[in-house]
Amino acid sequence: MLTRIKDLATQLAPRLIEIRRHIHSHPELSGQEYQTAAFVAGVLSSSGLHVQEGIGKTGVIGELRNTGKDDRLLAIRTDMDALPIQERTGLEFVSRAEGIMHACGHDVHTTVGLGTAMILSQIAEELGGKVRFLFQPAEEIAQGANWMVKDGAIENVSAVLGIHVFPSIPAGSIGVRYGALTAAADDLEILIIGESGHGARPHEAVDAIWIASQVITALQQAISRTQNPLRPVVLSIGKISGGRAPNVIADKVQLLGTVRSLHPETRAHLPNWIENIVANVCHAYGAHYQVNYRQGVPSVQNDYTLTQLLQLSAEEAWSSDRVQVLPEPSLGAEDFSVYLEHVPGSMFRLGVGYKDRIINHSLHHPEFEVDESAIITGVVTMAYTAYKYFQQP
């Protein structure tokens, strides 16, 4: 079966390159993936899958059904949205949308999903079970997975697999990670409320800007001395707003930031921990405060058995020297984790780096590029893992 899957992938390779370049040239922002969704639906329909559009607003489901005795339903999730970045790659198929770019590889993800669907549709009778392809919108704003789940995208699903490009390893390689793959990502808003006054008489006011700076410093220092260093926390303030004029002491300052963590227990106590620090600083200097902590997506926690299945399938397909067990998680976030709150699953990393380049630009960079040979590596790995899934009891 592996030989057959590889042969089918080789035959499809030119078409898959065309698909990826079409999607790359026509990127769409989160929740606006109308053309991409219509294109995906057309490819799925032409491959004989049962297609549903408008799932999770602009998402698409393609289901491969057969009459096998295996009642399990395997989901394969890929995402479709792009980023508000002006592309600077100079590629022939550069983005035609001003200020929008597939800088996170979702064009590759979508192509791998379509290629996998094309191959599995040709071996459907030998699968034994059902496969549901989830083409998800709005991953970049961490909303799409919730939209898809709300619309029933994973009803009756037994397991889910996902993929994400990884420029840090070369094309032709696969990276797997047991346990935590990505971090939980939460949003933080802190409002410091002081009292306005003349810049020449600071003792008559309560300087919200100065106090906000003390809050930021206290939070960063407290992480290194009150949080377990083996359970990392990253708190970054990305936006500060406040003040009215150079000679007027600010009475209000808004701080906006992100909080990343890997362990659920650590994440659970962070809201109170942050508020206590803010409260102590503000109390010391006579200010009031508001803290709004909004939980975003949880950490991707890969299921051991499914990760092992991915690793063994990839090693069989490509040899063990092309499969890496990643030693560290990423503190980036992925809303694939939302599906894992409902069903077991695993996401693997697809190497897309050029072997002969000194620099492979990172994700979200305006010059980010991928070695397109990686597409076949991803398609074969995903298709063969799906086949092996149904061979196991």
UniProtKB/TrEMBL annotation:
<feature type="domain" description="Peptidase M20 dimerisation">
    <location>
        <begin position="189"/>
        <end position="283"/>
    </location>
</feature>
<dbReference type="InterPro" id="IPR036264">
    <property type="entry name" value="Bact_exopeptidase_dim_dom"/>
</dbReference>
<dbReference type="InterPro" id="IPR011650">
    <property type="entry name" value="Peptidase_M20_dimer"/>
</dbReference>
<feature type="binding site">
    <location>
        <position position="164"/>
    </location>
    <ligand>
        <name>Mn(2+)</name>
    </ligand>
</feature>
<dbReference type="GO" id="GO:0016787">
    <property type="term" value="F:hydrolase activity"/>
</dbReference>
<feature type="binding site">
    <location>
        <position position="364"/>
    </location>
    <ligand>
        <name>Mn(2+)</name>
    </ligand>
</feature>
<dbReference type="InterPro" id="IPR002933">
    <property type="entry name" value="Peptidase_M20"/>
</dbReference>
<feature type="binding site">
    <location>
        <position position="140"/>
    </location>
    <ligand>
        <name>Mn(2+)</name>
    </ligand>
</feature>
<keyword id="KW-0479">Metal-binding</keyword>
<dbReference type="InterPro" id="IPR017439">
    <property type="entry name" value="Amidohydrolase"/>
</dbReference>
<dbReference type="Pfam" id="PF01546">
    <property type="entry name" value="Peptidase_M20"/>
</dbReference>
<protein>
    <submittedName>
        <fullName>Hydrolase</fullName>
    </submittedName>
</protein>
<keyword id="KW-0464">Manganese</keyword>
<feature type="binding site">
    <location>
        <position position="106"/>
    </location>
    <ligand>
        <name>Mn(2+)</name>
    </ligand>
</feature>
<comment type="similarity">
    <text>Belongs to the peptidase M20 family.</text>
</comment>
<keyword id="KW-0378">Hydrolase</keyword>
<feature type="binding site">
    <location>
        <position position="104"/>
    </location>
    <ligand>
        <name>Mn(2+)</name>
    </ligand>
</feature>
<dbReference type="GO" id="GO:0046872">
    <property type="term" value="F:metal ion binding"/>
</dbReference>
<dbReference type="Pfam" id="PF07687">
    <property type="entry name" value="M20_dimer"/>
</dbReference>
